[in-house]
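User: Can you help me understand a structure? I only have the sequence.
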Amino acid sequence: MKGDRVEIVIDAGGSTRTYEIEATRAGRRVDVTHGRGVVEVTETTRGGTPVRTARFMSGRVLALVEHPAPRSALPDDAAVTALRQTA
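Assistant: Let's start by predicting it. Here is the structure, written out as tokens:
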């Protein structure tokens, strides 16, 4: 969905670098795959065609955070109740 983004923090040998991949248009999504020592983040279209791809060595990845786009509440959503009362 447009607005979904993934933030990746990489160890760059003494410092860190931060990369962001974002779904830039309506109908696009961001997919994350892990395998064989590689983390791959891809922005794809509705049809599955990759638009942008970023690959990182999994040994260098310090953090990978997925930020979903804000979605409005639906009318049938239940109200959230706290499990404990706060002080």
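Now, to help you interpret it: The chain has a mean pLDDT of 85. The beta strands are 5-11, 16-22, 29-35, 38-44, 50-57, 61-67. Let me know which part you'd like to focus on.
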